[in-house]
Amino acid sequence: MNATSPGLLPAGILDREDVRRSLAEHDFAAVFRLLKKHGGISQNRIAAACMLTPGKVSNVINGETQITSFEVVCRIADGLRIPGALLGLAARPWEDAGDEAVESVVDELPDDESGDVPWRPEITVSMAARMTRSDLVMDRRAASKAIAAAAVGGAALLEPLEGWLLDEPAEAVPVALPNGRLGGRECAELELTARKFREWDHKYGGGLRRKAVIGQLAEVSDALKDHQSGIVEQRLFRVMAQLAGMAATMSWDSGMQLKAQNYYKAALRAAHAGGDIEFGTNVLAGMARQMLYRGRPKDAADLVRLAQDGSRGKIGPRVRAMLYTREAWAYAAMGRVTAFRRATMQATEVLHEAGGDDAPYWIAYFDEAELAGVTGGRLLDLARQEPAKHAEAAAHEIRVALEHRGAEAGRSHALDHIGLAETLFLMGDVTGGIEQTHTAVDAAEQTQSRRVRDLLAELYPYTVRKDANRGLREARDRIRGLLTT
């Protein structure tokens, strides 16, 4: 392919001296102005081709920002079909592919860290496809690096999520796609598979089935690269959102915090593309919970507000109640006890409205037992600072949760038992704490969740005392034995 090949740019424009000079100097303000002036290409078309927002292109042209990212330069080269040599790059993959090549440039999209990547369905598909490709071939060394990568917060986390507030996805760039062959039966099978994966995650936790979920997500991404009927495409995006959300939870449960965030972003975009406001709200709540576990309550509160702003009047009572518990959790983490109690009361009142509603299956778990478990866990957070004020109330709520959900709850069941053991130690009931610790270890042995093991590690110090009796030593040995396997 040469400078006069058919594409977005008119023939001959890359032969102009002023265009070539601006490209060589990476003066993209001048490049974009010259393309508008001599090529008749609008800012919106430039933005669409380069996977930038129109606002970003406008800021570049006005001199308010510069493009310095190597990845963005590559996107400009590929989107506008500018040969690599004109930009000081190696030859781009498409240059020797001939005019019949139809590979999409969005296959090389960077992680959506800047908020500049438009919320368009085809971009969501390409982002998911790229993530799953790299994840499925990840070896142990790469997995170790993924575990070491820290989750981001602040503007770096929140800015790329602002597209959630858009009423509709941005208009797709027209491109010829092969016709898809999926119908209602295939969609129903994929939906059932996603539901089964969620049941497994709820019961076992951890990463044992993470690769299976990611593999299924890759299959759905491939299906969405074809031209499907409108209703099939919507259902596929909703399945993609659920699978990406599970991949996020499983990645987090395996200690891969940054990967979890990236899958959450893909899930939110897919829910937006599929018009599933409720599940998108659930995704943001999941991101908030991750931030709370990472000790970042302000980020969590911002995520909850974003979820609430984008879902007013569009979600059922169970999802609304769950959001209130995330808000309460953030308040508790910030030491705002009165605000915590107020949000918890709001969650209780809204949950009472649910009754026998036909809520989506993925939120059916959020019932009185779940509310009690979450509330007990937050009271335990407060009890660590002031045991006399909050430990007894925490124990009561956790016992309510345990009475109403059994071992089939898997990870939640184990977390409840560990939390109850700690509250008993905080209350000075050493005998009860020892007995409950053994029960907690029994429950923890039934799940592969890293979160369960992290919380069990927080219980360990209560068993380490100079005057430790035989019971404490045995409890300590059981915790240590599980954590070292």
Account of the protein in words:
- The protein contains 22 helices and no strands.
- The protein has helices at residues 17-24, 28-39, 43-50, 54-61, 70-80, 121-136, 140-148, 155-158, 184-204, 210-224, 230-253, 257-273, 277-293, 297-309, 317-333, 337-354, 368-383, 387-404, 411-426, 430-444, 450-459, 470-483.
Content-based structural category: mainly alpha
End-to-end separation: 57 Å
State the shape: elongated
Flag low-confidence runs: 1-6, 97-111
List the helices and strands and how they pair.
Layout lengths: L16 H8 L3 H12 L3 H8 L3 H8 L8 H11 L40 H16 L3 H9 L6 H4 L25 H21 L5 H15 L5 H24 L3 H17 L3 H17 L3 H13 L7 H17 L3 H18 L13 H16 L3 H18 L6 H16 L3 H15 L5 H10 L10 H14 L2
Task: Give a short synopsis of this structure.
By secondary structure, the chain is an all-alpha fold. It has 22 helices and no strands.
